Amino acid sequence: MTPIKIVFFGLGAVGSAMLICFSELAERDGAAIRFVVYVRNPDEARDALFHAEQLFEHIDFIKLSDFSSVFALEPAHEQELTGATFLVNAALPEFNGAMLELALRIGAHTVDLASDIYGAKTERTLTFAQYAYDTALRERGIAALINMGVSPGVTNFLIGRRMHDLLATDRKDLEVESIDLYLLEDIDSDSIVFSWSPVVALEELAQHPRILRDGRMLVLDPFSEAREYHFPHEASSSRQYPLYQEELLSLHRSFPEIESIGVYTGGSEVELVKALFQLNLLSKRSLPDRPEMTIEAMVRAILPGMNKPRRIEEYLRSGTIRRAHFAAAAEIRVSETVRNERQTAIETVGLSYLRYPELLNSPYAGATYIAYPTAASAAILAWHALDYLRTKSAQTLSGVITGEDLARILPRPRADAIRRDLVAWDIDLFESVRDASET
Questions:
Q1: Which of 121, 200, 240, 256 could connect to 266 by a Cys-Cys bridge, CB 3.0–4.6 Å?
Q2: C-alpha distances in angstroms, 232 versus 83, 184, 204?
């Protein structure tokens, strides 16, 4: 049996958990699998897999100071890349373009977890940079799965699945008025524990958020226009703030007829960054006695870094981390004529990851409560896309593919299998419909 070869660029908190999940999916489905992992420090990569050492015999760890020689397809790397099925960017969005160029040369599909949405071109065009390769990818029959993970990723898949069902009813008077996505990243801990790199968190949350309102893309002040949202399994509501995240641009592209789309976020990590912002500690102003350093740069330098997997496991095992909850809930506002009058309903689709302590007795011990659902979601979506590619014409799944695209293209039994796998990997799903007048 020819093994499925998956090539990783980087193997941090998400990449390591994603590799484990691919291995579990392959074992379940009786598929042989092989990994090539390009990293700066193979010892750190191995350490991230400290509860999954049995996988080392299936992994080729390759040390590189940077990825440029691989992206250039230098002869030393040709054999490593021969027969690659998927290339996975588990490092930074800035590598997406180079990875896609490599994929076009060797004929491999790709997976990335996020896009560079803060670049000047993306802000101007409101289009992800990966779409520049869409035509070439389609001509080669290559699929580039972009913005995979839990959010973005599964959020887009769930919203897309519900939207395509709504549009398939062909009710001429049905109108989707708005989509609002609410995110919760909440951790109760005796120590400050960042689920993401603090630098990434600061960059994302301190950006000027955007929302689509009445057909216009509006730029807001950070932490303005807050809302309250009550997530399942939470005793009280969460303060939610507008956030500029991939779902906004992706949903706007997939469903241009919807005039109002917003993404909101809240929870303990968000409140920490809000406090820094309100104390002016994210200011770009220079320090009085050090003009070469800004206040923001100083704060970034002294904030605790992202903890290593062994420390995260120690925090969880010792009870330092008492509770953690990641959730996402999308409210789709739908109006139509019913019983001779216009009625509006709110359809909610969402997910919740609340079983974080159970990672302690699994190969994933050491993952954060955000890294784990992100990795498992990305692996599950990619695995089912790959299985579909192996059984159908590749031309039916080629070019740049988002979560909404997967929801539209994959047959219903396949989409349902994705939902079951998400639940099997401890990511619970929920949905409901209520009268908008009850809000």
A1: 240
A2: 44, 11, 25
Task: State how far the alpha carbon of 294 is from the alpha carbons of 132, 223, 429, in Å.
Answer: 35, 21, 43
Cβ partners under 8 Å of residue 105, min gap 6: 73
| Residue % of the chain over a pLDDT of 70 | 95
Query: What's the chain's length in residues?
Result: 439
- Enter the tokens of residue 341: 């009058």
Q: 35-49, 93-107, 274-288, 388-402 — which is least confidently predicted? A: 274-288
Phi, psi (deg, nearest 5) at residue 233 = 75, 5
Close Cβ partners of 73 (under 8 Å, ≥ 6 residues apart): 81, 102, 105, 106
Burial 230-253, CB ≥16 within 10 A → b, else e: ebbebeeebbbbbbbbbbbbbbbe
Structure-block tokens of residue 42: 């193979």
319 CB neighbour count, 10 Å cutoff: 10
Cα gap 382→375, rounded to integer Å: 11
Q: What DSSP designation does 307 have?
A: P
Closest among 269, 216, 260 to 241, alpha carbons compared: 269
pTM confidence score: 0.94
Domains and CATH numbers, the chain: 4-150+368-425 (3.40.50.720), 154-362+429-438 (3.30.360.10)
The answer to whether 87 touches 112, Cβ cutoff 8 Å, is no
Who has greater pLDDT, 337 or 406?
A: 406
Q: Which of 439, 437, 436 is nearest to 176 (CA)?
A: 436
Q: What is the pLDDT of residue 85?
A: 96
> pLDDT tens-digit profile of 98-138?
999 999 999 999 999 999 988 888 888 999 999 999 999 99
- pLDDT class of 396 with cuts at 50, 70, 90: confident
Place 305 in a pLDDT band, splitting at 50, 70 and 90.
low
pLDDT tens, residue by residue, 131-160: 999 999 999 999 999 999 999 999 999 999
366-to-13, 359, 370 alpha-carbon distances in Å: 8, 8, 11
Q: Which residues pair with 213 in a beta bridge?
A: 216
Q: To the nearest 10°, report the CA torsion of 120, 121, 125, 126.
A: -60
Rounded Cα distance between 52 and 59, Å, is 11
